[in-house]
Design brief:
The complex is a heterodimer of chains A (248) and B (258).
Chain A: E1 11-12, E2 15-16, E3 28-32, E4 40-46, E5 49-60, E6 73-80, H1 96-112, E7 121-131, H2 136-150, E8 160-167, E9 170-173, H3 177-182, E10 185-192, E11 197-207, H4 209-247
Parallel strand pairs in A: 6-7
Antiparallel strand pairs in A: 1-2, 3-4, 4-5, 5-7, 8-9, 8-10, 10-11
Chain B: H1 2-17, E1 33-37, E2 45-51, E3 54-65, E4 76-83, H2 98-113, E5 129-140, H3 145-158, E6 161-166, E7 169-178, E8 186-193, E9 196-199, H4 203-208, E10 211-217, E11 222-228, H5 235-257
Parallel strand pairs in B: 4-5
Antiparallel strand pairs in B: 1-2, 2-3, 3-5, 6-7, 8-9, 8-10, 10-11
The chains are: A alpha+beta (248), B alpha+beta (258).
Chain lengths: 248, 258
C-alpha cells in the first residue's frame, strides 16, 4: 500500500498492466536440487522474482540448549539481496520486515514438517530473494517447500504460498510489484493443499468479508496450478537423476 | 514451572470440552478493559491500557523529519515495541525479538491501513514533515498483547497534541493543535485450542494455543490480519471470526473514545 498521491492506473481496458486476467498467475518455473552442498534446494522464477531456497538438516541442534529432546527445531531465514529491486541499494541481511516474514514462514513450515521424527535436531530453511517483483514471500515459501521435499524431510504436505490484491472492486491473484505498491489491499497466504487450510495469513489495506471470501476461492483455484509446478520440479529432478544412475 | 503449565494446560482443555474457560468467560468474551489517556503529560500523547492482567503503556513523540522518498507529502509513522524485562520472567534485555517486531508491525499495519492518522496534515515548512513515533511499552504480559497494544496506541493517538514548530525549531512547551485522527480501528485476536475458538486469550490460554489470528477492522472493512503459531485455520473459520471482529468494533471504539 503506497501513497495515495501519484497513484498510477493499475488497469488498462479492463485488464491488468501486464495483460493478465484477474485470476491469472505469472509464469512460474521451479528447478529442484541445484545446490550441491545443501541437503535440499530449489531455484524459482515467478514473473520477475528470482529466488533461491535451500535446506540444511536434519542436523544436531546448536547451540545445545536450543535443542528440543522431543522434536526438531526449525530455523528460517528470509532475506532480500541488497541489489534485488529497481530501487536504491538496500541493506544486507534481514531487516524488520524480513524478520517478521521469517517468523510467519517458520510457523507455516512447522505445521507440515513431522517434527517428532527428528528429536534433538535442527532444520535450517533459507529463502534468498535475488530479484524481487512483488510477492517475494510467496515465492520464497513456495520454493522452500520444494527444497524441503528435495532434502527428504518428512512432511505431511507440500505447501504453497500466493498473494491476492484488490484493485478497485477487483480481486487479483499474484500481484506484481507495482500492483502491490498501489493496490487497495494485499493478502499473502500459505496453504496446505491436502485440506486447503491456512498456514500463513497476512493482510493489509481494506477488504470486506465478501472480498475475503472471493479471494479465498481464487487462491484455492490458483493453488492447484502452483502445486502442479512444485510437483513437476521434484518429478523432473528425480527422473533425471534416475536416468543418470541407469546410464552409469 | 513446566509441570504446572502442563497441568494447567490439561485443565484448560478439559474445561473447553464443557464450554468453559479458565477465567469463566464466554468463548467470544473480551476481558475487562481499562483505558487511561494522558498518563504521561510530557509525551505528546500517551495512554495506558489494562486488558485483564496485561498492561501496555504507549507514548507518542513527534519529531520534525525528512519525508520518505516515495511519500514527500506525508508525515511518517514509526511503531516499535519493547517487551520489557520486568513484564515477564522470560523477557530479557537485548535486541528486539521476532515477537516484538511482529507485534509492532501488526499494530502499525492496522493503524496505517485504516488511514487512522491524517498523514497529509503533518507536512511542515522547508520540505520537512512530522514523524509520529508510537512506542509500545509492555509492562505486564497477561496474554493478547496485540489487542491491548492496538487499543493503547489508538487511545494515545487520540490524546496527541502537536507542538509548535517555528523556523525549524520545535517548541515542545507549546502545543498548537490535536493530531488529526480520521478513523478508528479495533483489533481482535482469536486463539484456536483443540478446534475451539477463543477471543482474547489470557496468558495461560495463549500457552496452549495451536493457532492465533489477529483481525483489525474499522467496523466496515477488514484493515489488517495476521495469523500466528504453527496451527492452521479453515478459510471459513476465518470468515466467521471476521464477523465477530466487525461486531466487536463499536464496543471497543466506545471504550477508546470515552
Amino acid at each position: 500500500m503506497g501513497s495515495s498521491s501519484n497513484k498510477p492506473e493499475l488497469l488498462k481496458n479492463g485488464k491488468r498492466l501486464d495483460g493478465r486476467d484477474f485470476n491469472e498467475l505469472r509464469e512460474l518455473k521451479i528447478e529442484a536440487g541445484i545446490l550441491k552442498n545443501a541437503d535440499g534446494s530449489a531455484y524459482l522464477e515467478w514473473g520477475n522474482n528470482k529466488v533461491l531456497a535451500a535446506v540444511y538438516g536434519p542436523k544436531e541442534a546448536v547451540p545445545k540448549h536450543f535443542a528440543d529432546p522431543t522434536k526438531a527445531v526449525i530455523k528460517c531465514r528470509y532475506a532480500m539481496a541488497p541489489f534485488s529491486s529497481l530501487e536504491d541499494h538496500g541493506r544486507t541481511g534481514p531487516n524488520r520486515r524480513a524478520i517478521e516474514i521469517s517468523k510467519v514462514a517458520k510457523e507455516a513450515f512447522e505445521n507440515v514438517i513431522i517434527l517428532n521424527d527428528y528429536p534433538g535436531a535442527q532444520i535450517d530453511i533459507f529463502m534468498e530473494i535475488l530479484q524481487s517483483d512483488g510477492g517475494t514471500r510467496a515465492a520464497g515459501i513456495t520454493a522452500a517447500a520444494v527444497a524441503l521435499a528435495n532434502a527428504g524431510i518428512h512432511m505431511r504436505d507440500l505447501i504453497y504460498s500466493v498473494s491476492v490484491g484488490r484493485i478497485g472492486e477487483h480481486m487479483a491473484i499474484d500481484v506484481n510489484k507495482i500492483e502491490d505498491n498501489y493496490s487497495d489491499a494485499d493478502m499473502p497466504v500459505a496453504i496446505s493443499p491436502r485440506n486447503n487450510e491456512l498456514l500463513l495469513l497476512q493482510m493489509d489495506g481494506g477488504l470486506t468479508k465478501k472480498q475475503y471470501e472471493e479471494s479465498m476461492v481464487m487462491i484455492l483455484e490458483a493453488g492447484k496450478k502452483i502445486h502442479e509446478v512444485q510437483r513437476k520440479a521434484l518429478e523432473d529432478y528425480y527422473s533425471i537423476n534416475k536416468k543418470n544412475t541407469e546410464q552409469e | 514451572m513446566e509441570i504446572i503449565n502442563t497441568l494447567k494446560g490439561e485443565h484448560i482443555k478439559e474445561l473447553l470440552k464443557n464450554n468453559r474457560r479458565i477465567d469463566t468467560r464466554a468463548f467470544m468474551e473480551m476481558r475487562h478493559v481499562k483505558v487511561k489517556r494522558g498518563v504521561l503529560p510530557q509525551a505528546e500523547g500517551s495512554a495506558q491500557v489494562d486488558l485483564g492482567t496485561t498492561k501496555v503503556l504507549v507514548g507518542i513523540k513527534l519529531m520534525p523529519d525528512d519525508p520518505m522518498p516515495d511519500t514527500p507529502n506525508q508525515g511518517n509513522l514509526i511503531t516499535s515495541a519493547e517487551l520489557l524485562p520486568l513484564a515477564h520472567p522470560e523477557y530479557e534485555t537485548g535486541p528486539p525479538s521476532s515477537e516484538s517486531i511482529e507485534l509492532a508491525r501488526v499494530v502499525d499495519r492496522g493503524i496505517r491501513a485504516g488511514n487512522c492518522i491524517d498523514l497529509e496534515s503533518l507536512v511542515l515548512e522547508d520540505k520537512k514533515v512530522w514523524s509520529v513515533y508510537i512506542d509500545l511499552y509492555i509492562l505486564n504480559f497477561g496474554g493478547n498483547l496485540f489487542d491491548a497494544s492496538t487499543m493503547a496506541a489508538m487511545a494515545a493517538l487520540l490524546d496527541t497534541k502537536i507542538p509548535k514548530y517555528e523556523n525549524g525549531i520545535v517548541v515542545r512547551e507549546e502545543r498548537v493543535k490535536s493530531l488529526k485522527i480520521d478513523n478508528i480501528v479495533s483489533s481482535t485476536t482469536f486463539g484456536k485450542i483443540d478446534n475451539y475458538m477463543l477471543l482474547d486469550m489470557n496468558d495461560n490460554e495463549e500457552g496452549m494455543a495451536d493457532a492465533r489470528v489477529t483481525i483489525c477492522t474499522d467496523g466496515t472493512s477488514i484493515r489488517a490480519m495476521q495469523k500466528g503459531l504453527s496451527g492452521s485455520f479453515k478459510p471459513e473459520e476465518i470468515g466467521s471470526l471476521i464477523d465477530v471482529s466487525l461486531n466487536e468494533h463499536e464496543k471497543i471504539k466506545r471504550i477508546l473514545e470515552k
